[in-house]
Design goal:
This protein has about 210 residues and is mainly β. It folds into two domains: about 90 residues, Thrombin, subunit H (Beta Barrel); about 120 residues, Methylamine Dehydrogenase, Chain H (7 Propeller), CATH 2.130.10.10. Helix content is about 0%, strand content about 45%. The chain is built from no helices and 20 strands. Strands 1, 2, 3, 4 and 5 form a five-stranded antiparallel β-sheet that branches. The radius of gyration is 16 Å and the shape is globular.
Length: about 210
């Protein structure tokens, strides 16, 4: 589920229907289905599990766990309707001449500026980072991506200042944390394996 940054549209991933439902949000919090909802993702994308909206609310990013790719959809700023961009979905791949491919992507988060996007992959046990093209919405792999996490990474969270990324690893019962550099690349913080008493499943910050 993802709320637009303007908080006027709400999107819900329908994992079994391979679609995204869209709702307009009234001032009192009531929801109205957007015309045309639910919006299907391309047939080459399957198992949508996580959503994130771009900084300007122009794009919605949909992580497809079954097919290990990312669907990118434009958001109509007036109606909230969605339309998949040309070439979508895109594989979750890293940088370099022989880039690694992520499997089992299950969560997506953007930094506080919306310039960088990060995807956790629970099967390949790593974290992929991308720069975001503000005009097209397309993604480019960051240098040294993917980044190593614990086992079965799931949820991730960026702090409000945008300089630290936290990842829950239920399989290894710990939390990985990284410094977000100015170019979006990640640096593993020394001794970044804070243990959790059980297989934790959620993260939250106070404000």
């Amino acid at each position: 589920m993802a709320l637009s940054r303007a908080e006027n549209f709400l999107y819900i991933a329908n994992i079994n229907l391979n679609s995204v439902s869209a709702f307009s949000v009234a001032a009192d919090g009531s929801l109205t289905a957007v015309a045309g909802s639910p919006f299907p993702i391309a047939v080459t994308g399957s198992g949508p599990t996580a959503l994130a909206t771009g900084a300007s609310d122009h794009f919605l990013y949909v992580v497809n766990q079954v097919t290990s790719n990312i669907s990118i959809m434009t958001i109509n700023s007036t109606t909230g309707a969605l339309a998949e961009i040309l070439g979508s979905p895109f594989a979750v791949t890293g940088s370099g001449t022989t880039p690694a491919t992520g499997t089992g992507p299950n969560y997506v988060v953007l930094d506080s500026t919306g310039s960088f996007l990060y995807v956790t992959c629970t099967t390949s046990n790593n974290l992929f980072g991308f720069s975001v093209d503000a005009n097209t919405g397309k993604l480019d792999a960051l240098t040294n991506s993917p980044y190593t996490t614990g086992t079965n990474p799931s949820l991730s969270l960026v702090n409000s200042t945008g300089n630290t990324l936290f990842v829950i690893n239920p399989g290894s019962k710990n939390i990985s944390f990284f410094t977000i550099n100015s170019d979006g690349t990640l640096t593993s913080i020394t001794d970044n394996s804070l243990s959790t008493p059980t297989a934790a499943s959620s993260l939250a910050f106070t404000h």
